[in-house]
Amino acid sequence: MSARQRINLAPWLELPLTVISRLRTQLAMAESGGAGDVDGRRRAVLDGARGHLDEAEQACLNVPRFQPRAGTLERIWSNIRAADADLLSIASDDEVRARTPEILGMVRRNLSETSPQREAVQDVADKVEAGQAPLTDRDRSILVRALAFAYASLGGRHRRVRVLADLLWIFTGAAILGLIALAVWGYADEDAVDLCFQPQPPGNRVVCPTGEHQVPPEGPPPMAEAPAVTDVVTSKYARNQDVLTVEFAGLIGASLTVVTAVRRIQPDHATQYQFRLPLAAAVLKFPMGALSAVAGILLIKGAFVPGLSNLDSSAQIIGWSIVFGAAQHLVTHIVDQRAEEALSGVRKP
């Protein structure tokens, strides 16, 4: 692969391409070392490893523009790990002995303490450390299969993180569509979503998110008086920007809680899977904050919140919208906990 072919590749492709290059070197060494005695089984393994590396390299160099990145990563790393296991199965005894501590560490990180494969690898590692008899075919098979199990366990946990991240992006898209539909509805029909209040007393004002309005008095000038509270229809004073204003205030409140999600992006979140999940959880807070703001103001207007049946000014409406936008954290906190559990599963056995 020439340098020209690697120009303008995404940064997340550089690591797998480097690993592919290293494994190709091992493949060439294995072919040259067994040139005088290449049986059918060894040739089949070499061809299989080369096929996995070709597949992974093509996935890196020919990433479809609209294909999800997570799917490409799944294809790349599954082929790289398969090629690594194939090369280990035909490696020399000295190389297998040298890689035994590495395999033991991989197994310890990704398999539980009660796993039979982990116990078997520990026995082989003790044998290698004690410098006992040469490794048997059974010992080599134990190491190869344990490495494959460890890779499968690691891939499964990465897959769970990917699925959860994809679900969060879908929820975020649905919430954004709901926000847009609500804003368009409020803009097209001013009376549809009434977010205005009439302070009590007096009854000669109506306050909305976009401003305050005076209610004209009833009757001729000598007998003019403010209309009764029950006679004022606040929806007549609503403006088409009211819903959009409340949603924007909710976004401001939600942005105050995004810091907690950013805090979960730890330095060891180096892989694409681990970074996408906390990012998706953070982005979800913005549309949820805007929806929470609109829902909260409607709950106050419907007297569902004791003591807050009426707001006295536009500033209070905006202020409570920001509060409700930040309050979405009470709901999305559950999502944050699930994301943290999924990421902890990747970092721990």
Element layout with pairings:
Layout: H1 14-33, H2 40-61, H3 69-89, H4 93-110, H5 116-129, H6 137-188, E1 205-208, E2 211-214, H7 242-255, H8 258-263, H9 272-301, H10 314-327, H11 329-347
Antiparallel strand pairs: 1-2
Helix pairs in contact: 1-2, 1-3, 2-3, 3-6, 4-5, 4-6, 5-6, 6-7, 6-9, 6-11, 7-9, 7-10, 9-10, 9-11
Structure description:
It is a single chain. The protein has 349 residues and is an all-alpha fold. It is elongated and about 105 Å long. The chain has two domains: 152 residues, no CATH class; 184 residues, no CATH class. It contains eleven helices and two strands, in the order H-H-H-H-H-H-E-E-H-H-H-H-H. A hairpin with a 2-residue loop joins strand 1 and strand 2. The protein has a two-stranded antiparallel sheet with strand order 1-2. The N terminus is likely disordered.
Task: Tag the structure with descriptive keywords.
349 residues; mainly alpha; 2 domains; two-stranded antiparallel sheet; elongated; disordered N terminus
